[in-house]
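Reply to dn_fold:

You asked what the input looked like. This is it:
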Amino acid sequence: MDGIDIVARNSGHVLGSCEFEIITPEASILYTGDFNTEYTKTMEPAEPVPCDILIVESTFGVPNFVFPSEDQIGKDMVDWTERILKTGKTPVFQTDYLGNAQEVVRIFNESTDIPVVTHQKVSRINRIYESHGHKLDYIDAEADEAEELAASGNHIFITPKQFNVQNHPEMVPALVSGWALWAKHKAFPLSDHADFTHLMRFVEDCEPEIVLTCHSGMFGETLARYVEKELKIRAYPIHLIPTNIL
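and this is what came back:
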């Protein structure tokens, strides 16, 4: 486009997510968007790209956001589920219906024979993942089979975060999110974003001359400070860069 090359690359976040490499006569730029640098059940990781300017998300850009491995989180989720099922209650995982929800489906498909029921919003995204070759074994909550499972009590239920369990005393909820590290109730820190350690490693591997952090406000400022201190690379929160739009 007018002498500028734009290359879309997998960002490892959710199905279809991209990071963009922008090559101009003056400099090369990599914009990550939301991204993840670890293999997950449904995604391959974003790969670093050498660039002059790196614009990197900083959703979890502070040192206290370091997540356990997905395998460990999955084991913890299954162990908790088995304990809840023994009480006669239904474990409910509340999460983003795009990305994390499909990871939870795969975790239980691979680790147990416990049936997985998904809210219709989750099921809609499940079908898109399936159309792109991802095998997901689940039952939509609106199906007759889901009613039978509800009566039996032997299943998990995956819902959007906003699902209200207040009027469902038979359900025991748990949040599934990177923000689980700050949660005051039951939660599992499964995230489709890079944590602090992986953010820093990605920046280092891209070898940029300048880093601009975006998303998450003060976390962007914190990440920029750590990049300058630990990696000796100039870094600024992008919202502090003056711009003139004519």
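The chain has a mean pLDDT of 94.
Hope that clears it up.
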